[in-house]
Write a structure and sequence with these properties.
CATH superfamily of chain A: Thiamin diphosphate (ThDP)-binding fold, Pyr/PP domains
Number of strands of chain B: 15
Number of strands of chain A: 9
Distance between the termini of chain B: 56 Å
Oligomer: heterodimer
Number of domains of chain B: 2
CATH superfamily of the largest domain in chain B: Thiamin diphosphate (ThDP)-binding fold, Pyr/PP domains
CATH class of the largest domain in chain B: Alpha Beta
CATH architecture of the largest domain in chain B: 3-Layer(aba) Sandwich
Shape of chain B: globular
Order of helices and strands of chain B: EHEHEHEHEHEHEHEEHEEHEEHEHEH
CATH class of chain A: Alpha Beta
Strand order of the largest sheet of chain B: 3-2-4-5-7-6-13
Strand content of chain B: 15-25%
Structural class of chain B: alpha/beta
Distance between the termini of chain A: 36 Å
Radius of gyration of chain A: 17 Å
């Protein structure tokens, strides 16, 4: 008896199972993205750019034209493509290090210019590919390889609140949300809203996805979910921060 | 297809930066991405004035990293895209260029050299030769044209797009602040009227049809899993580059294969070297001249022939030996003695070259 695995149509079957660690959240975010691409029927127009870091492993993930860029530089590559061919749907996929640290100037300025692209940022609170160093998103007190006694916010600042920042600097028309891999239905909706925003020519759209990294968190299944749902969600509010035509300025409650 | 920007040959008198903007326009460049830095700013100034009238695009980015990476995106969308920078901007530009080298992206980058290291001067130097020919991590492959006058700035801006799109190596036009800011006369023309056919562009992403259904998806990467995988890719690149080199390498010379002393220089300094050599030859001196136009690839066989026939080679440059280092590598083992006249970050006159030749002849 064979079981039909429900994969989005735009997934590339030949490259599955994917290359991410067991328990990684990337597969879930990419499933939500794949579902959104399918629902909107944009597989032929989408261009997917992936950053360096764990996100680079998605370079052959979809049956979608894909460009692997440099660490932090996916936003400008996708911006360059969209500016040169506005008919394409540009998707910049990155981690929290790529978007909030090394590539923060690109995220800020693409948002400020209201570039008509979609950025999806996977937040797992540390640098996964390089072995679990502190990231801008590392929680206060969280242990990483470069904060072995726990993140000291007196010395290293507070975790970056990306969607809040992007919502503050974008003009009307932008779409900004934070989803979580623990609510795939909602995350898929947020990503779909973001892509629709680009399709409508409204401007910049940004979705942060709270994600999982049991490998570097050194957590078992139960503790992995606990960290996501109890600790990350406490600091990072899930919801829509900005949507065209709405007055949302604060994250709406989970749901 | 865009309308002809230049209907008929036109003699003009303008700055080098303006010439680059016109050259890119004549080459049917479709989009420029750029970030302000002296002395290249006026390329953007003229482009932003001309572009809307001819249906071309411009994006001012947040820094040179972004200017380079958006340019990479522009060519991957299948457009003739270019950028321009200088000095510390050239340092940042090396990161996106290394992606272009890894993925064989036909970007065009104009460099107007300024003094260094660091912010140094905004005026002039030939101190960006090493960075422009050999920058980037790993062992990337690129083409670098060094221009000496405004006619060449126009000619080689057009040629750079064709070299880039024909061979798929990132291509540079290397000039300097003197060429950028000085006014000079030249003839502008429509490339087609001179029999120059623009090499067609091709989209990397966003081609017709649905990927995975009507066609294979374009999956472009610059990361490899194992050493041997990278090695195999690079072997292919090196073979392509070596095959291209003799077709792309350019130089100019005067009696370089029959003179006791040969003066070697590139770019604007080559004008002083040439004037000096012409004067000296009129006065009966046994001296020749060799000017590489492509600094990468160099015209190695021709250089080696010169370096085996001449007794002495005098390298003249506004740097402390950057061209010199490239030449020494190319002519390693040849018999000529290597001498120098280096003035890092400072212009060099024909009189200075003449005086130096008289010292060594």
């Amino acid at each position: 008896m064979s079981v039909q695995v429900a994969m989005p149509k735009c997934w590339r079957v030949e490259t599955k199972p994917h290359k991410f660690c067991p328990g990684c959240g990337h597969g879930i975010v990419l499933k939500a993205l794949g579902q959104a691409i399918d629902d909107l029927g944009i597989q032929d127009r989408a261009v997917f750019g992936c950053d360096i870091g764990c996100s680079l492993l998605s370079w052959d993930f979809f049956n979608v034209d894909t460009i692997q860029t440099h660490h932090g530089r996916t936003t400008p590559v996708i911006t360059g493509i969209k500016r040169a061919n506005p008919n394409l749907i540009g998707i910049a996929y990155m981690g929290d290090g790529g978007g909030y640290a090394i590539g923060s100037q690109h995220l800020v300025n693409a948002a400020a210019r209201n570039e008509n692209i979609t950025a999806i940022l996977v937040n797992n609170t540390q640098y996964g590919m390089t072995g679990g160093q502190m990231a801008p998103t590392t929680l206060p007190g969280q242990k990483t390889e470069t904060s072995p006694y726990g993140r000291d916010i007196a010395k290293t600042g507070n975790p970056t609140l990306g969607p809040e920042m992007v919502a503050a600097i974008t003009r009307d028309g932008a779409y900004v949300a934070r989803g979580t891999v623990s609510n795939v239905k909602q995350l898929t909706k947020f990503i779909k809203n973001a892509l629709e925003n680009q399709l409508n020519g409204n401007g910049f759209s940004f979705v942060e996805a709270l994600s999982l990294c049991p490998t570097n968190w050194r957590t078992n299944a139960a503790d992995t979910w606990k960290f996501l749902e109890k600790e990350m969600s406490q600091y990072f509010t899930v919801g829509e921060f900005k949507a065209p035509g709405s007055q949302n300025e604060e994250g709406q409650a989970n749901g | 297809m865009a309308e002809k920007v230049i209907q008929e040959e036109k003699r003009v008198f303008m700055t080098g930066n303006e010439v680059v903007a016109w050259g890119a326009l004549a080459a049917n460049a479709e989009i420029m991405y750029g970030y302000p830095i002296t002395p290249q700013n006026e390329i953007m100034h003229y482009w932003t004035r001309l572009a809307p009238k001819h249906g071309r695009e411009f994006l001012q980015t947040e820094d040179e990293l972004s200017a380079g990476f958006t340019t990479n995106g522009g060519v991957m969308a299948g457009r003739r895209a270019f950028t321009a920078t200088a000095g510390p901007g050239n340092t940042l530009m090396q990161e996106p260029i290394s992606m272009a080298e890894a993925m064989r992206l036909p970007t065009v980058t104009v460099i107007q050299q300024r003094g260094g290291p660091s912010t140094a001067t905004v005026i002039y130097s030939q101190q960006e030769v090493t960075l422009t020919t050999l920058g980037g991590n790993g062992e990337g492959l690129r083409v670098v044209y060094s221009t000496a006058n405004h006619q060449e700035l126009f000619d080689y801006t057009i040629k750079a797009f064709n070299t880039a799109w024909k061979y798929r190596f990132p291509t540079f036009v290397l000039a300097d602040g003197y060429q950028a800011k000085m006014r000079e006369s030249l003839v502008m023309y429509d490339p087609a009227a001179k029999g120059i056919e623009m090499v067609p562009t091709e989209a990397f992403v966003g081609k017709e049809g649905t990927p995975g259904v009507d066609r294979e998806p374009g999956h472009f990467r610059n990361t490899y899993n194992v050493e041997e995988e990278l090695y195999d890719v690079l072997q292919g690149y090196f073979a392509d580059y070596n095959k291209m080199a003799p077709q792309v390498a350019e130089y100019k010379e005067i009696a370089s294969k029959e003179s006791k002393v040969v003066v070697m220089a590139h770019g604007v300094v080559a004008r002083a070297a040439k004037a000096a050599v012409e004067d000296l030859r009129t006065a009966g001196y046994d001296v020749g001249y060799f000017r590489p136009i492509t600094l990468r690839p160099l015209a190695v066989p021709e250089l080696r022939e010169v370096a085996n026939k001449a007794e002495k080679i005098l390298v003249v440059e506004s740097a402390n030996g950057q061209l010199d280092r490239l030449l020494k590598e190319a002519i390693y083992g040849c018999s000529a003695e290597m001498l120098s006249l280096f003035k890092p970050g400072v212009g060099i006159t024909a009189e200075e070259v003449e005086a130096r030749v008289k010292e060594i002849v």
